[in-house]
Design brief:
The structure holds 2 protein chains of 2 kinds. Chain A is mostly beta strands. In chain A, the strands form 2 sheets. In chain A, strands 2, 4, 5, 6, 9, 10 and 11 form a 7-stranded mixed sheet that branches. Chain A has a 4-stranded antiparallel sheet with strand order 1-3-8-7, with no helix packed on it. By secondary structure, chain B is an all-beta fold. Chain B is built from no helices and 10 strands. A 5-stranded antiparallel sheet of chain B has the order 1-3-8-7-6, with no helix packed on it. A 5-stranded mixed sheet of chain B has the order 2-10-9-4-5, with no helix packed on it. The radius of gyration of chain B is 13 Å and the shape is globular. Classes of the chains: A mainly beta, B mainly beta. At the A-B interface, strand 4, strand 5, strand 9 and strand 10 of A face strand 4 and strand 5 of B.
């Protein structure tokens, strides 16, 4: 899992509630990513950021929001607009031209 | 749409046999990366092969890259039960920013 931490390990969301997933890295990487993984569908890119205060939408950004106020942190908020949030969420960071380093993931469940 | 696509989607072999999985991609790349994911865990990087390399080894892993065919293969020799996992390829596009996309993976089961 390298130098990336994600919390919590499990998260429960109630109907209409926004929840925030934490991702912190101490690898001094500029680029960070959020992926969603559903069974049998591999990883889908939600948002990515290459530098502080800058981020871009990935392939499935609707219903999600992010911020990048610090190099070490890239939190993901799952908003009430995301109607099917149940999934495994993975955060990653990467050095220039290098591989991705993944966190252990957060499993989000809807009550 | 996915840039990298793995094949087969599932593979079951006996311990000690070799396992081969393939990855195809559509556009030009800087490098191609292979990852392993154990059930319920994050992905772990295995090997990165650059676009000007044709073959790379790491322990029991051998990766080949054919840029003319836009394909790569991962060979695991003398497989062990602990190799049971899903394997993904990732293909950062050349030029521009590293918007990395992953395929749906190959689920490998190694039977003891």
């Amino acid at each position: 899992d390298g130098g990336i931490t994600q919390s919590p390990k499990y998260l429960f969301r109630k109907e209409g509630q926004n929840v925030t997933l934490s991702c912190e890295q101490n690898l001094n990487h500029d680029a960070m990513y959020w992926y969603r993984q559903d069974p049998g569908q591999g990883l889908r890119l939600i948002y990515y950021s290459q530098i502080v205060n800058d981020f871009q939408k990935g392939d499935i950004a609707e219903g999600y929001s992010v911020s990048r106020e610090k190099k070490e942190s890239f939190p993901l908020t799952v908003t009430s607009a995301q109607k099917n949030p149940t999934a495994f969420y993975l955060c990653a960071s990467t050095p220039p031209g290098g591989p991705q380093y993944f966190g252990p993931g957060t499993r989000l469940l809807v009550l | 749409s996915q840039q990298g696509e793995e094949d087969p989607q599932a593979l079951s072999i006996q311990e000690g046999e070799n396992a081969t999985m393939n990855c195809s991609y559509k556009t030009s790349i800087n490098n191609l990366q292979w990852y392993r994911q154990n059930s319920g865990r994050g992905l772990v990087h295995l090997i990165l092969i650059r676009s000007n390399e044709r073959e790379k080894h790491s322990g029991r892993l051998r990766v080949t890259l054919d840029t003319s065919k836009k394909s790569s293969s991962l060979l695991i020799t003398a497989s062990r039960a602990a190799d049971t996992a899903s394997y993904f390829c990732a293909t950062p596009p050349s030029g521009g920013y590293q918007k990395v996309t992953f395929g749906i993976g190959t689920k490998l089961q190694v039977i003891p």
